[in-house]
Amino acid sequence: MSTDPYNARVRELFAAPEHAGDLAGGATVLADDQGVRVVISASVADGRIAALRFRAWGCPHLIAAVEWVCSHYEGELLQALEKFPVDRIMEDLAVPIEKTGRILVVEDAVQSLGRSLNH
Amino acid sequence: MADPMIYLDYAASTPVDSRVLDRMREVAEMNCANPSSTHAAGREAQAIIAHAAAQLAGLLNVDPGTLVWTSGATESDNLAIAGGARYRAHRGKHIVTMKTEHKAVTDVFETLARDGFDVTWVEAQPDGRLSPETFAAALREDTQFASIMFVNNETGVIQDIEALGLICREHDVLFHVDGAQAVGKLPIELGRLPVDLLSLTGHKFYGPKGIGALYIADRPGCHVEPILFGGGQQRRLRPGTLPTDLIAGLGMTAEVAAASIEADLEHLRRLRQILWEGIRDIEGVVLNGDPGGFPGILNVSVEDIEGESLLLALEPLLVATGSACNSKTQEPSYVLRALGLSDKQAQSAIRFSVGRPTTRDEVEFAAGHYRNAVARLRELAPMAAG
Question: Is residue B370 part of a domain?
Fold first, then answer.
């Protein structure tokens, strides 16, 4: 049994978060809870999420989760933001159960982003 | 291909010196007897153990008869504290230690507290040192036992054991020192120090894991009750078949340390300076603990950085968090919190510990890698994070 607290996917996303950064002119939301902080910004084109960028302060699982989320939603219809795949994230990233609250902070950010973009 | 790992966790454990390995192999191949056996092979095992005791006693400048073999520092601490406090319990049940001690000490004190002992936890100064005045003020008429570590395992802070021991002697208090991070690393004239009990372990100074010792000074009133039972070995203080090869290894470890301790210290001082000079100008970096502490340990915190991410970003450096952090509790180090660090400062703490095999190239790489990791995580963080 591995005692490594991070699986290969977390290590990969943490090492090279392709969506790290900001988007000028897009919608930006902040979620700040559970001792972590997530900022996601998005641009929209033709009813789809054209690009997503993030900044995050937190543990490797959180950073990997936000990168995962950005990859997941990019190119999708705006309505996709209404569904947050918490179970897939927990499984793909092997997030320890005690860190569930941090993933829910990411969910808060995504839902906030959805509301912001639909206005 | 992954970067080769760079081991900078010598305060956690050290590689076994090749001379020690040779000695252990030699003994293991030459003698399989139980040292308690009275036949020729048993007597030979006894002689091997006596030689090892002389080697360790030589490092510490004590009589070999004052040493009791144990499985390591944790057992030595348990035997010294539980055994010492109980031995003197008829005279009083007040016992004293510091908040910044290793768990192998604090947990025993907490157990004794549940058994009716009255514990005073003395506070360190912000630099981690214990003021002799603070220590003296904590002692009472009914104080019978005190335990203070020589070198702190997280910060490298060195306590003034001589001054603290003299206070204990003045008050007739049995004085135990956890020497796990000090023995074989600092020159210690134990026989000349006012110390009654001292714990040590082999694997912290290039010896094998699973073997340690407790020094019990040969003076009136200095004694411990056993905490293990089951045989007459070691004057019934610590029964159990003695591991001849491990003991021979610890003896050789002590002999090697005695010959190299000054050169080792100079080597560590140079490395620590290179490391610290390489990172000290990073915005928000602070050195935790007394800067004049043991040079093998450098404990640093940095503002606005999440400790768990920093640890992962620092790979392939093998370092320790200053915290006793684990993924379940995320608790920041109680040692650093006791020095006045905030939870976030303590959580970002990294302990670099260098050793005899560490090279200049390794610490230069470590400094550069730490700078890059901090910069990367700051770039990733939202403004006004934390």
Answer: yes
Residue B321: its H or E element: strand B320-321
Query: Exactly one of B32, B168, B222, B325 is catalytic; which is it?
Result: B325
Range of the domain at A84: 8-118
B102: left (phi over 0), alpha (psi -120 to 50) or beta: beta
**pLDDT over threshold 90, residue B365:** yes
CA-based nearest distance A58→chain B, Å = 6
Stated as kind and residue range, the H or E segment containing B201 is strand B197-201
Query: How long is chain A?
Result: 119
pLDDT score for B232:
86
Residue B222 bears catalytic tag: no
Cα separations in angstroms, B89 against A29, B85, B366 = 63, 6, 49
Average pLDDT over residues B64-88: 98
Q: What are phi and psi of B19, to 5 degrees?
A: -65, -35
- pLDDT per residue as tens digits for the range B86-112: 999 999 999 999 999 999 999 999 999
What pLDDT score does B231 carry?
84
Q: Which range of residues forms the domain containing residue B375?
A: 6-13+261-380
pLDDT at B172 over 60: yes
CA B354 to chain A, closest CA, distance in angstroms equals 24
Do B58 and B179 belong to one domain? yes
* Domain closes at, from B197, B226, B257: B257
Please report residues of B whose CB lies closer than 8 A to that of A38: 382
| Whether residue B316 sits in one domain with residue B232 | no
Tell me what ipTM this predicted complex has: 0.95
Number of domains observed in the structure of chain A: 1
Structural domain count of chain B: 2
Q: Is the pLDDT of residue B322 over 80?
A: no
Least confident of A102-111, B105-114, B225-234: B225-234
CATH number at residue B305: 3.90.1150.10
* Domain boundary pick from B232, B257, B282: B257
* Residues of chain A with a CB closer than 8 angstroms to some CB in chain B: 5-6, 11, 14, 17, 20, 30, 37-39, 55-60, 63, 96, 98-99
Quick one: pLDDT band at residue B324, thresholds 50, 70, 90? Answer: very low
Same domain, yes or no, for B199 and B52? yes
Write the CATH number for A87. 3.90.1010.10
Q: How far apart are CA B198 and CA B286, in angstroms?
A: 32
Per-residue pLDDT, A2 = 66
pTM value > 0.90:
yes
Residue B234 lies in a domain: yes
- The three state secondary structure string of B252-275 is HHHHHHHHHHHHHHHHHHHHHHHH
Chain pair A-B, CB pairs under 8 angstroms: 45
Identify whether residues B87 and B120 lie together within a single domain: yes
